[in-house]
Amino acid sequence: MDISIVQADITTLDVDAIVNAANSSLLGGGGVDGAIHAAAGPQLLAECRELRRTRYPDGLPAGEAAATGAGRLRAKWVIHTVGPNRFAGEVDRDVLARCFANSALLAGRLGARTVAFPAVGGGVYGWSPQEVGQAARDGLDDARRQGVRYSLQLPPAVILVAFSSRLEQAFREAFD
């Protein structure tokens, strides 16, 4: 996996898959989740409702990942993952790292060649930029190890998308 770091609007990137820092309802929210839903249009919400009806009636658990189509986005897929909410007492950084690992592994199973990640957990869920950067590093390292161990395909290109210069710097420090 080639990992690059950019400061950009994730909804405008020309990639195969975009990871959504979703809430467990999968029905949209604030921050990057709201931006992705707004840019993708009503088809994304319809697919998320179907996921809730069929596979996740109680919501998507923290650390797991699920895919839908991408609606009007340039991407082919949106991979939804739910970070632990630090403000609700969910402080296990391993769960945050699993968001990155499980999303990368799912992107590989879908056949994505490029996947863009936001700062999962770095917005309203209260994780610091440094913690998000370390979790991204640990999660993507874990995905690589699993890929080698189980001969799993992973996306060759991963883009970590920062919404601020502070977060971009934290990603860079974690991956240097």
From TrEMBL:
Domain Macro, chain residue ranges per copy? 1-176
Q: Which SMART domains match?
A: A1pp
What InterPro entries does the record tag this protein with?
Answer: Macro_dom, Macro_dom-like
Record protein name field: Macro domain-containing protein
Q: Which organism is it from?
A: Arthrobacter silviterrae
